[in-house]
Write a structure and sequence with these properties.
370 residues; 4-stranded antiparallel sheet
Length: 370
């Protein structure tokens, strides 16, 4: 009798793992072999020098924006956007989007542009008034508006991480499916229209303009790479791969306005996830497992600096148990890197050495883009 019950339970369990309907339809692909954490990616403890800011003021300050006076702005999982003094003190509620503010940037008029995972592309005036700029393009609603960067004319480049999976809590679904639902978009405030620059991206995440605004970068989280879309010159309207086969899972990317891109890596690559890349059925099985049995990101702070030629200039990590992680954004102001996180109850500040070539002078800060 006991054997029969055990057999029945086993049959039900196997049937569930193999046949229970799921929301993803995985596409086979071949993940490149992950680079070892050595050489330019060697493990280190540089980010252990970071200091925590605004501890327990809210959960999930995914991005940090800095205004001309050095005040810090973050968006929390409960929809609040809060301003802090430059030292992270004196929280001041600026607005509540009633959604999930993710990427943040200021336009030239001083409006805070927000990529809200639920609400789309928003603009918040200095007085705190919220205006919806765009919620769909080419007839397709944004399901996961993710990151944003405004150019010197106020034109806004932003990403819809996934037009299939939303609201903004299902990055895992899109990445496990690998179905190419991400888009890079441009919003022109003069026409109040958004256009799709690239589609078919594998979870389109962080976005950042180059120093001369001749190209824009977009992180493809699901493919571990950074794509470049050309805005000026002979290549305008075309795109190529700026950096391939990253050693970690890319999230946000920002430019310091002086030739350096900062890439936030959510965690190092996951060997189990890569091994399943060409096995769609196995990815469905993994999706049906309890979350604690699925591939998990390592608790590992990881930031790369790249120049505009795609060379690695900085490798900042922290593998300690109390490391600030996962890091989802890096924004530079002066000689400080401000680190955001999708899940942490704090954000952080990392001081660049005074002689670091990426240090931005007082004169350069006017060109810094988030």
């Amino acid at each position: 009798m006991i054997k029969n019950i055990a057999l029945l339970i086993l049959i039900i369990l196997v049937g569930y793992l193999l046949f229970w309907p799921v929301s993803i339809d995985p596409v086979a692909w071949q993940a490149p072999e992950a680079p070892a954490l050595e050489g330019p990616y060697a493990s280190n403890s540089a980010l252990a020098k970071s200091r925590s800011l605004a501890v327990d003021e809210g959960v999930g300050p995914e991005d940090v924006a800095i205004d001309d006076d050095g005040f810090l702005y973050v968006g929390y999982v409960d929809g609040r956007i809060v301003r802090f003094d430059p030292d992270g003190s004196n929280p001041d509620l600026i607005a509540d989007t009633k959604g999930r503010p993710l990427g943040l940037d200021f336009d030239p008029q001083g409006n805070l542009i927000v990529a809200d995972g639920y609400k789309g592309l928003l603009s918040i005036s200095p007085s705190g008034a919220i205006a919806a700029l765009s919620q769909r393009a080419n007839g397709v609603d944004y399901r996961f508006t993710d990151d944003v960067d405004a150019d010197s004319n106020g034109v806004i480049y932003f990403t819809d991480a996934s037009s299939k999976f939303g609201p903004a809590l299902h990055a895992r679904d899109d990445i496990l499916e690998h179905g190419g639902h991400g888009r890079l978009l441009r919003y022109d405030p003069a026409t109040e229209k958004a256009e799709v620059l690239l589609d078919g991206l594998q979870f389109a995440n962080g976005v950042a303009l180059s120093q001369d605004e001749d190209f824009v970068l977009v992180n493809e989280t699901g493919s571990y790479r950074i794509v470049r879309y050309w805005l000026k010159g002979d290549k305008a309207g075309s795109h190529d791969v700026f950096f391939d086969n990253l050693p970690g899972i890319p999230d946000g990317v920002s430019a310091n306005g002086n030739g350096t891109f900062w890439v936030a890596l959510f965690s190092p690559r996951n060997a189990m996830l890569d091994a399943m890349s060409d096995k769609p059925l196995l990815r469905k099985v993994a999706f049906r497992l309890p979350s604690f049995l699925q591939p998990q990101p390592a608790h590992h702070g990881f930031v790369l600096g790249l120049n505009e030629q795609g060379d690695v200039t900085h490798n900042l990590q922290d593998t300690s148990a109390d490391a600030f992680a996962p890091i989802t954004s890096v924004e530079q102001h002066g000689n400080t890197l401000y680190l955001g996180s999708l899940t942490a109850p704090r954000f952080a500040a990392y001081p660049l050495p005074a002689n670091d070539p990426a240090t931005v002078t007082e004169q350069d800060t006017r060109n810094v883009t988030d």
